[in-house]
Structures are given as C-alpha cells and as structure tokens.
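Researcher: For the record, we're logging two predictions in this thread. I'll number them. Prediction 1 follows.
Model: Prediction 1, sequence and structure:
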Amino acid sequence: MIRQAVAIKLLFILFLVPATLFAQEQTERTPEFGEDIRFPALPYYSYGSGLGWTTPDSTFRLNLRFRMQSRASYVENPDGDDSVDAAVRRLRLRFDGFVGDPRFTYAIQLSFAPGDVGTLSEGENLNVIRDAVMFYQPDDRWSLGFGQTKLPGNRQRFNSSGALQLTDRSINNAQFNIDRDFGIFAYYFAAQENRFSYNLKTALSTGDGRNWTQNTSTHMAYTGRVELFPLGAFQNNGMLFEGDLIREPTPKVLLAGTYHFNNGAQRSRGQLGDLLSERRDLTVIHLDGMLKYRGWAFQTAYMSRMADDPVIFTEEPARPQYYFAGSGYDLQLSYLLPINLELIGRYSSQTPDSDIREFEPEREQFTFGITKYIWEHALKLQTEATQTRDTFANDSGRNHWYLRFQVEIGI
C-alpha cells in the first residue's frame, strides 16, 4: 500500500508540473505591440532582455537590468605626483516595462558609483536618479514622453556609456554635451532598411539638468534633432552602439544634426556645471556621422556652444565666472578582428572661445584602445592609452597621459 501511494504521488507530480508550465505559457502571453519596447531616450545596446516579469493578464511588465564598470588607471600628473586610480566608475540599475497597456512604457535608471552621483554640496540634490520617464507610444513610429531622461544630443552621448568602444566618451562630449533634463519629448521613427529614411526627435525641457530644483524662472530649453540614413537603417539597431559588431554586409551611414537653445541658462555648461550669478542664452550645435561596413567603423562629430558675453565680471577677479563657449571635433576609427578583438583610435581637438581663452586651454587628445568582446557589449575587457596636450593663452603647454584597464559587465 505504501509503494502504491508513493507511485500515485509521483504520477500526480509528473502530471502537475507540465500542466502548470503549460498554463503559464498560455496565460503569460506576449502582447502584440510592445514585445520589443523602445525607449527612444535610452537606446543603449543590451545583449538580451535582462530579467523580466509579466503578469498573467499581461497588464504589467517589469524588466530588471544592471551594468557595472570597474577600472584601474595609471595617471601621469604634470602638476604633481603620478597616481594609480582604481574604482567602480559606473554602477547602474535600470527598470523598464509597461503598465496597463503596452503603449504606456516607463524607464527608471539609478546610479550608485561616486563618479555618477558626484559630491553632495549644501543646497544641492543627490544625483542618484538618472532617468525617470514614461512614454506613450500610439504606434510603432510615434513616442511621446514626460519626465527626466537624455536630451536628443550627439550620437555618442545619446548612446549608453556601456555601448562605447573606449572606456569613456571624448573630451568634447565632456564639455559640450546637453546631457539629461526634465521635460516633454516627442520622437518620430521612420528609419527603414535598404532605403533612404530618417528619424526626428524633439524636446522641451527646463534647461537646468537632472535633479535640479532651483529654477525660479520660466526660462526653457528647446532641442531638435534630425537623423538621416542615406543607405537605410543599420542592422540590429547598429547606430545605438559603437563598433561594427554586426559586420554590416553593405555600407551603412548615419548623418545627423542637433540644435539646442537654452534660454537663460544658469549653469556654466547649460545642464551641467557650476551655478553662476548671471544668466546667459546658450546655443548648442551638434553634427555627427557614422559609417559601418564589414567590421570597420568610423564616426565623427562636431560640437559647439555659443554665448553672448560668456564671462561674468565679479568683485573677486581671482575666482572668475564664465560659461564654457567654444567648439571641438572628434575622429574615431576601428576595426573588429575575426576573434572579436577590436582596435580603436580616436583624435579630439577642442578650442575655447577667445573670450574665455585666458581661463581654458586649447586641447588635443590622442587615444588608442584594444577591446575584447566576450559577450558583445554586455561583457568586455578594455585597455586604452591616452595622451592629452594643453596649450594655454601664453603659449605655454603641458602633456599628460594615462593607461587604463576596464571590465564591463551587465544584462
């Protein structure tokens, strides 16, 4: 009798488990629209879909992803002793999905590394929140958003830092990018494969950057971007990550431009930088291009920021206040070997406006890097050497360089 009871229980378990799994397959259906949820303001490249949950009635989806960059650098300091810097450069946690209807999507991204959060000063907010935005997507072309996320700036900035070939963006991105802001976003996607097509992206935002609550005026920022694909769209959204990991069988080209006007900015770099005592109108122009073909990838960018009377004269001339106005350009070339080892070279040039030339040097930067892709951009090893040349207004100069190793992992 005992053996018979055990046998019955085993048969019940063997029947119950497949039946349960079958029931889950039937109830946890994938919505017809929203299977590949598109977050136009957060288009970073990810191999896989992270860890996700969907309710049985498909009214709610939560996707969890993380990303971590750990690096060690040897830095030659021209004004002091050389140093070894070792730290977690980026640690990000992201949640995305939809609520109620696949057309109503959301994205939350939090940062925890010191380099992301920054130093907390009196009267300022902690910068843990990078993105907190929702989008309404009535069809597969339109996306209407509200919240805090990246503005549609240059291509390298718009891409995730986890989708870069080198360990960081260029010096021009550091100075001229328009970063994140709180506002209203409207995007129209018309890119198609194998034919001339385009995307349009616009934003109306506060102009003060992320997590900023000290705006006491009605000044706003206006952003518009056009992306052209003369030979059709890249395969697998290849414009959203650097390097030709797809090995495009035919040439693919992106030509794009962004116009950004920040009316009455109060920070030295618009959405970033120090709070200054007087406001200025800032105009930012970004032009960028990308070419990929059979493992080769080339990208270039021009960035500028213009301001009338960028220098603010104060009672303390030893501590000048000024808006960073000027321009710069980047050239970046790479080739992906058959063993998924990539060789990358980048040249950047940056020129401040004559009004602030006594405060900021002209700058050139040369970078050579080697990246080993283990699991595309989700798991990679990166090594790079960078030299920077600064030339000051009195024609004096200095050179400094660093050697860096970085490991990137994420889902």
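Researcher: Logged. Prediction 2.
Model: Prediction 2, sequence and structure:
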Amino acid sequence: MKPARDRGFALLVVLWSLVLIALLTTQILASSRTALRLASNLRDAAVAQANADGAINEAVFHLLSEGNNGWQPDGTPHVLVVGGLPVTVRAISLASKINPNLASTPLLAGLFQACGASNRQSHMIADAIIAWRSNAVSPQAAQDRLAAYRQAGLPYGPPAHGFDDLAQLSYVTGMPPALLAAALPHMNLYQSTDPDPKLADPIVLQALTISGQTGSSSTQYNGANLVVQIDAEALGPSHLAIHRHAIVSLAGPGTPQPYEFIALY
C-alpha cells in the first residue's frame, strides 16, 4: 500500500507541475503577444509621424511654388501619398489673426467686442492683457496691479512679459471663459504685424473696423514674412492616425533662407 500511495503522491505532484507550467507558458505567450502589439503600434506611430513630417515639408514646397504646383494658405485640404500611405495636409495663413502679445488696446478691445462683450467690458479686458504683458510704469502701479488680482481672489499677479501659450489668457483677471473661447480661434502668437484685412475672417475684420486701426480698410498689406500653420494627419500601416502641426515663416523662394520652421509638434 505504501508504494501505491507514493506513486499517487508523485502523480499529483507531476500533475500540479504540469498545470503550473501550462499557466506560466500561457502568461509568457500573452506577454509576448502584448509586447509584439506594443512594438507594432510604436512602429506604426513612427511611420505615420515620419510620413506626416514628410508631408509638411512637401507642403512648404508647394506654398513656395507658383503655377499649378502652388498652394494658397487658405485651409484647403490636400491629400498627399507618402510612403504609399495617405496624408491630409492643410495650410492656414496666420496673417489673418491677432497676436495678443503685440496687439494694441483698441484692437484687443475690438476683438472682444466683436465676440460679444460690451464696450466697457472689452476695454477692461484689453487693459488687463496689456497690464499682464508690460512693465508697470512705477512701483505703485505694480502694487495696484497685484492688488487687483488679490481682490479677485487670485494668488498671482501680472508677470510683465508676453504670453507663452494662448491658454494663459485665462489667467488674466476679468476674463470670462465663454468670451475667451469665442476669441481664441482668432488669435495666435506668431503673427508679427496687425492682421491682413484681405485674409481676415469676419470677426477679425470687425475688430479692425471697431478699433479704427490703420490698415483696417486698406488694400495693400506690408507685413513681414508670411507665417502659416500646417496641419498634417497621417495614417500608419494599421490605420493609426497621427496629427502633426508646424508653424513656418515663409520668406519666399528668391531669398537666402526661403523658409524657417518656428515650431513643430
């Protein structure tokens, strides 16, 4: 009877060992499949990003070209084939937008008034933006600015430098979120001059008219280099979508440096 019990116990150990090995094998196979899937996704993302970046460079070529190869930065979608895969590219001129780091008080007030604010509210917000980005004229003026933020229950004050991101406009005292949401599509941080009236959308054109700024009704635009935003949506081999964006300054094909990438993200 004892040898039979020993054989039964040994069989039980063997069976449990087989079960354990089977579980370990299943876990290893599952981990391997997960790792392969992750590696495949990373490869697809890298391919899609490379294709998108390639399409952005091709878009710059078309924006600098004339004739049939030339593109206008008007937001028209263009489908390019890069590496055998489609990439949808749009180029939009930023000369139609208002830069809150450079715009005057009347132009900023005109924008917020065009977006629905009252004349009084729009000027208060415009003054607050100017105060945010500029140095105070005296120590007392700096204290008054800080006191206005403290009175609003905010633990910070104007930093006396420009905005690094448009989202920072929400930190300005007295800025209603709904009004900012309406104004954001008409602003950018890259345009170095006032908006080009020929390219401006109805809101920006109304802001120029309200502000009475020079150029609001002119037919000639003497701004600096054209700055465009290029948006690219690329599909990877497994249809994984990647979005890439570039801000490009276009000087022209006959210049020593025809273009310059300001941002790529």
